[in-house]
């Protein structure tokens, strides 16, 4: 059961008034923490046996503003005071807090870690394969081999007609398409992703070069028509190709790269993949906020009062301000600058996922407030 959906049992705690502040304390710790009015409200509901998810969802459904940041901070303070009885909750928040405070995102991409032992059945853990039935997974495994590939090695080339598909277990690769004078960079493929799906699913010639950026470990899935014929029939092909693109985009985002597997799967399954063309308006400033978006391929520009605010690329999110801050109307106009694909998640589905994923919700809320300050000062 997810931490957010559990009923949490708390050991005794106290809230004391010191001047204008209310202070959260416990006899089990010498620490003390200020508690805000909204945190006190959340704490009362936790003490009454409500799960974190139900507290969030009930508040949102009631038309009130909910703060995932306040709930996260409250939970961390309760853990620091040693009043959360469930050790799994302690481990969950402690691990995430350590990652947030001690592991900032590097500004320069680090080299791949030392190659560890991989097995062919490791592909079953990757996002693209996780929801397949056991017999289908076994078919992929039986037709696969592990490859250790040096840095700057071409794995597939433009125009090639081989139908094999690849998954990146460790490392990273870049995609380069044809240009007027030289190859043009298209996108980066992070660890956990699949590529070569067009050839595998649709028997298309390769449309680009894929070159490793660092020493990488890949799984090569050999195409054997007799093994995959029934699996690749009808509309299943299009669904699978779209799934590949969505996963590429999400894994390219620092926001989604380390989320729990079930969270990634939720976004893959509830999101709607849209093909968008340059010049297309996704939404305009002042319109009601009805959805959340992730750039899967291409570029989107955000403008406020015709002033450029952000240029958004693969893996970047947008539309979060209207959904996370006082349910506002759109604070910017978002227009497609470079044709591609975006993932759209409806408002209700967005809230449902976040109320069961407090850490991701907190991060998205932080982005929303940061961008709101950049727009409004």
Summarize the structure.
The chain is of the alpha+beta class.
- Largest sheet features: 6 strands, antiparallel
- What's the number of domains? 3
Please name the CATH topology of the largest domain: Jelly Rolls
Average pLDDT works out at: 88
What structural class is derived from the secondary structure elements? alpha+beta
What is the number of E strands? 17
Number of helices: 13
Low-confidence stretches: 99-115
What is the helix content?
25-40%
CATH class term of the largest domain: Mainly Beta
Rg: 23 Å
CATH architecture of the largest domain: Sandwich
Q: First CA to last CA: what distance?
A: 41 Å
Task: Tell me the strand percentage band.
Answer: 25-35%
Task: Tell me what you see in this structure.
- By secondary structure, the protein is α+β, with helices and mostly antiparallel strands.
- It has 3 domains: 3-102; 120-252, Jelly Rolls, CATH 2.60.120; 266-376, Jelly Rolls, CATH 2.60.120.
- The protein is 35% helix and 25% strand.
- It contains 13 helices and 17 strands.
- The chain has helices at residues 37-47, 52-61, 68-80, 87-102, 134-142, 197-202, 225-228, 236-251, 254-257, 261-270, 320-324, 347-354, 358-376; strands at 14-18, 21-25, 33-34, 144-149, 154-156, 165-170, 172-177, 184-190, 194-195, 209-212, 216-221, 272-276, 281-283, 291-304, 307-312, 317-318, 333-346.
- The strands form 4 sheets. Strands 12, 13, 14, 15, 16 and 17 form a 6-stranded antiparallel beta sheet that branches.
- β14 (291-304) and β15 (307-312) form a beta hairpin.
- α1 crosses α3 (68-80) and α3 packs across α13 (358-376).
- The model is unreliable at 99-115 (pLDDT under 50).
